[in-house]
Give the backbone structure.
Amino acid sequence: MRFLFKTDYEDDIKLFPHSGYVVSYGTLLAFLLIAPFVLSSYLVSQLVFVCIYATVGVGLMILTGFTGQASLGHAAFLAIGAYTAAYLQQFNVPFPVYFLAGGLLTGVVGALVGFPALRLTGIYLVIATISFGFIVEEVLARWESVTHGNEGMRVKTLSLFGQAVPQNGPAFYYLCLAVLILTIVGALNLLRSPTGRAFVAIRDSETAARSMGVNVSLYKVKSFAISAAITGLAGVLFAHKLSFISPEMFTLQLSIEFIIVILIGGAFSLHGAVLGAIFLVMIDPFLTYLKDDLPGIIAGIAATFGADSIAAGKIHDNVAAIASANGLKGAIYGVIIVLFVLFEPLGLYGRWLKIKLFFQLFPLYKRATFKRQKIYVKSERNR
Amino acid sequence: MSYFRAENLSLHFGGLKAVDSVSFAVEKGEILSIIGPNGAGKSSIFNLISRIYPPTSGRIFFEDQDITNQPAYDIAGLGIARTFQNIELFENATMLSNLLVGRHRHSTTRLWQELLFLPSVRAGEKMHRRRVEQVIEFLDLEAYRDKLISGLPYGVRKVIELARALCSEPKLILLDEPSSGLNVEETQDMSFWIRDMKTELGITVLMVEHDMTLVNRVSDRVIALNYGRVLAMGSPSEVQRHPDVVAAYLGA
């Protein structure tokens, strides 16, 4: 186990507390940089989705994980970013301009959503953000002069400084990776400055935050704006990656997927946002694989246990019908969330910390270390 | 003119008069204690001063400025810090970040500077950290810097809350039952710290307290309340001998 001997206040401000971090993150970065040359184009494409989802995850983490304001409307922020890009592209606006415009516009919308959110907490805030999502979806479908309604919009290939950046090439992957890394660094910077601490203060006790001089309303709006702006930037990349956008892509289910990213990754940590994004992007092909192969496997098992070919065929068809049922994906996501909340509330990142601690303390690790302690109920808690 | 003044302060919840036309003044550099039976309205007065509740009527003045209608987050900026009866710390953060939130009213950096963590932000962080370390040393909290609040015992949390209030470098500090839940030894430490806050840091102290030993040891003056009204005001011994106070505590 490593003991840090701190000699300077700088030691508590640094992004990499000791050389071990530099080595491990350096290795990770090196791997990510050579990834397009060693991985199949399918995996690189999945990595691009990981980058985009992780960027949204970082944005949502700032709002939900650190400021404690739940949101089920982030698909709408993503949509605003994506549509801004598609719309401005028609007028030959260069990429850097509409990229920033997408972030800025979404940030402004996020701040506007933040205002009604000032008076809402918990489940009521969730409902308000869901309604915001529906409103945006509806506007995208109806405002045909701008969004082409349900026909959707084609997004032209990205061109940066006169160079075409096709959405399946390595250059686009590097762009998404760079955006993700810059977002993470920005978020880390924010979290180690007064604003980030004010966010955490609001999450844990609004009354105390206020009495320490934090303008709670202002900081909630700031948090919404920052979170939305980051999601808007991801939306621009999302539009380019899919090269076609339509309103039905930005539904409640997408917002729930973003919640899965931070919940399963592990709330209260930016690592969690990235891990959750990896999990979410991986689970989709896994589910497709199950859908295609599970009926055959189960029918095969039934056949080995003596079912005749007609019965096996029936089993195959029934399982296939269930596997391709509408809304099954949403149900599976729901089950995953419930299981994680029950058995691993700290998420994948929490599990990683436990594994790390197990080896650090090797024979002395106690399971109770991470047990959530029950604290007495506050009787006169000021709201 | 008094340093801090409450004039005819009232707080009514429907027919219940939690605070009923209370007037008092705090002189610069003194320690004033508010005592009274449960439900006398002591904490309500604090919540009025820190603007958690708007008063039904009455005015509050600090340094000759009317602060009755200031928003709650401005009160800290004026130099009034407080602690809470039922500890309101930021539970899922380390002690250091709790104390650094106490420095919030002194932070001058802007959002875009923080996103880039410019040298000015870095310098600010170090400056805040130095001030925080002074408070940590003052209150003997060196052992807990990187500990999460949720894992710390009650007595330590109580001191950390005091530390957070001191980190904002207040001119007036409101202590809501600083000794509740502390053992005899910790209460003694607390009484030394309260006196030191006055003599070394020059902070004016207004506190609500039930422990009469602590009140007698540190207070310059005492106000006794019951049913939201002032019963008696004066030196600790005067107030304790006052017939109305005796009646309020022991029955007539």
Observations:
- Chain B has a mean pLDDT of 91.
- The longest strand of chain B covers residues 16-26.
